[in-house]
Amino acid sequence: MIGKTIDQLNVGDAAEFSKTVSESDIYQFAGITGDFNPAHMNEAYAKKTFFKTRIAHGMLSAGFISAVIGTKLPGTGSIYIKQDLNFLAPVRIGDTITARVEVIEIVDGKNRVRLKTVCVNQEDTQVLSGEAVVSPPKPPKK
């Protein structure tokens, strides 16, 4: 099964993915990426920062956007080409983050789709915004 091809997409199409960020998620992300910044890992250190507590890695939230693109819109077979990100607010342990992707432009001749990408928390506060360029899957050859 493949995701939506360029001919199946329309401006305004959207999809979402939600996840509550746990302490385990932060530790696992640090282990995978090697980013052991104490702002994420050490509560005593984090209490002295602007945020006053540990925060999740910004790229963890960005990964939720990748989940939407790779599994929902356009979906399986999509190739991520470009992503611009603006980190707007911290994500704390226990926050539920919803990643939303919306088609804002279709470039048919190049098989490219431009997407608005946003992550919000449970209070509907934007924690991340940006744009992505994706190559949707091509239709299967007959």
Write up this protein.
It is a single chain. The protein is built from 4 helices and 5 strands. It has 142 residues and is an alpha+beta fold. The protein has a single domain (6-135), classed as Hotdog Thioesterase (Thiol Ester Dehydrase, Chain A). A 5-stranded antiparallel sheet has the order 1-3-4-5-2, with helices on one face. It is elongated, with a radius of gyration of 17 Å. The mean pLDDT is 96.
Reconstruct the topology from this structure:
Blueprint: E1 14-20, H1 23-33, H2 38-41, H3 43-46, H4 58-71, E2 79-87, E3 96-107, E4 112-120, E5 126-135
Shape: elongated
The CATH homologous superfamily is named Hotdog Thioesterase
Number of domains: 1
Report the sheet with the most strands, covering strand number, pairing sense and barrel closure: 5 strands, antiparallel
> Rg to the nearest angstrom?
17 Å
Low-confidence stretches: none
How many H/I helices? Answer: 4
The amount of beta strand, in percent, is 25-35%
**H/E series:** EHHHHEEEE
Q: Quickly give the CATH architecture.
A: Roll
Which structural class best describes the helix and strand composition?
A: alpha+beta
**What order do the strands of the largest sheet run in, or round the barrel if closed?**
1-3-4-5-2
Mean pLDDT: 96
CATH class term: Alpha Beta
Portion in helices: 10-25%
Q: Give a count of the beta strands, DSSP E runs of length 2 or more.
A: 5
Kindly report how far apart the N and C termini lie: 15 Å
- By CATH, the topology is Thiol Ester Dehydrase, Chain A
